[in-house]
Amino acid sequence: MLEYAEPVARLIDEFKKLPGIGQKNAQRLAFFILRRPKADVERFAKSLLEVKEKIVFCSVCNNLTDVDPCFYCSSPSRDRSMICVVEEPYNLVAIEKTRSYKGLYHILHGALSPLRRIGPEDLKLANLFPRLKPENNKGVKVREVILATNPTAEGEATAHYIAGLLKPLGVKVTRIAMGMPVGSDLEFVDEVTMDKALANRHEI
Amino acid sequence: MLEYAEPVARLIDEFKKLPGIGQKNAQRLAFFILRRPKADVERFAKSLLEVKEKIVFCSVCNNLTDVDPCFYCSSPSRDRSMICVVEEPYNLVAIEKTRSYKGLYHILHGALSPLRRIGPEDLKLANLFPRLKPENNKGVKVREVILATNPTAEGEATAHYIAGLLKPLGVKVTRIAMGMPVGSDLEFVDEVTMDKALANRHEI
Questions:
Q1: Is residue B117 a part of any domain in this protein?
Q2: Is the pLDDT of residue B1 over 70?
Q3: Chain A positions in Cβ-Cβ contact with residue B47 (cut-off 8 Å)
Q4: Which of A32, A34, A38, A44 to mutate to test the interface with B (most CBs of B within 10 A)?
Q5: For chain B, first and last CA: distance in Å?
């Protein structure tokens, strides 16, 4: 049965390949596109192609960037003695929003996951170690590596794995704190978070 | 603060324009695109442009199609004496899935909504009336128009409005039934649906 015209069916298929988009949602998006002015759709298509043409991995920290090295790695005002390791480029954005961290980053593009068959060789990890040498870091010695992978089983495993590799190199390795989210309520917090919040308690 | 490289920020913006896609989701989709092979993204962009180039409204029923008149309007095997009026092209697909309706369609591309300032002139309704004349319908007289707009306030208003216009023309006008969805449970049905199910009861 011919339900949709070929080009419409093809567009629905393309939308369905995006993460979290099912059949119904893909249909809705395709029909939205069909109703948009042609110029708007052309701009959308162009911006899809443009990221593939212009965006590369930063050769230093693996950030996605249109200039290499990226904005952070080439900035003269950042503290080069600290490197914060995150899983994904948008994790970097979350940290930048605090406006309190002024060091450099290293982006792994993933986390260890035996279940999904993601091993150390699948992470962008190898280029972290040369960065610790002053001659590869504009003469600055790295004092501390902050492991800011997600507070999940996968993120924890990744943090411990990297810590194990870094500690013999004589660099200070820290892990971001886990505990109660600010503004939350004791009543609704899960037991693992509560456990962490108790274990990481500090004097006031 | 420069958070994302320009092309990435632009793509996030484009995804955000899609219905139901917020900032976080748009970010996630943009990063998904960044990781896809270039050929895949090119195929996606092409299919976006293609629908705008190839898909037109059927001049008879307003269906979205790549051939005019559309598959349904030009089919020799469909019952030309019945026209089913629906709000959206994907409503047609829902009806076709039943495999029980073999007539023609008319697609309004919307429903009346005073709140959203959608009036009769915003619906693709004007070209429904000429279709009732046999000379405009391959010599076949239309016996029945089925109003299959949604069972919502807007769909109901639209059905009543169209019924008011059609009845003086001497054509039989019917409305799809409302009642309990098959496979559902009395316990969970809302009161308005239950009311309809009682009112539309029939002898067995």
A1: yes
A2: no
A3: 7, 10-11, 13-14
A4: A44
A5: 71
- Structural domain total, chain A: 2
pTM: 0.73
Do B194 and B118 share a structural domain? yes
Distance, in angstroms, between B5 CA and closest chain A CA?
A: 5
Check CB contact of B28 with chain A, cutoff 8 Å: yes
Would an 8 Å CB–CB cutoff place B55 in contact with chain A?
Answer: yes
Q: Tell if the CB–CB gap between A43 and B90 is shorter than 8 Å.
A: no
Judgement on whether residues B137 and B80 belong to the same structural domain of the protein? yes
The domain spanning residue A163 has which CATH number?
Answer: 3.40.1360.10
Do A97 and A169 share a structural domain?
A: yes
Residue A144 located in a structural domain: yes
Residue A59 forms part of a structural domain: no
What number is the average pLDDT over the span B188-204?
79
pLDDT tens digits for range B18-74: 999 999 899 999 999 998 999 999 999 999 999 999 999 999 999 999 999 999 999
ipTM score of complex: 0.72
The CATH number assigned to the domain holding B42 equals: 1.10.8.420
The verdict on a CB contact (< 8 Å) between A40 and B46 is no
> Same structural domain for residues A198 and A110?
yes
Q: Are residues B82 and B117 in the same domain?
A: yes
Residues B13 and B108 in one domain: no
Q: What is the mean pLDDT of residues A94-120?
A: 92
Closest CA to A33 of B50, B155, B30, B91: B50
Q: What is the pLDDT of residues A6-41, one digit of tens each?
A: 999 999 999 999 999 999 899 999 999 998 999 999
- Structural domain harbouring B132: 64-203
Residue B20 maps to a domain? yes
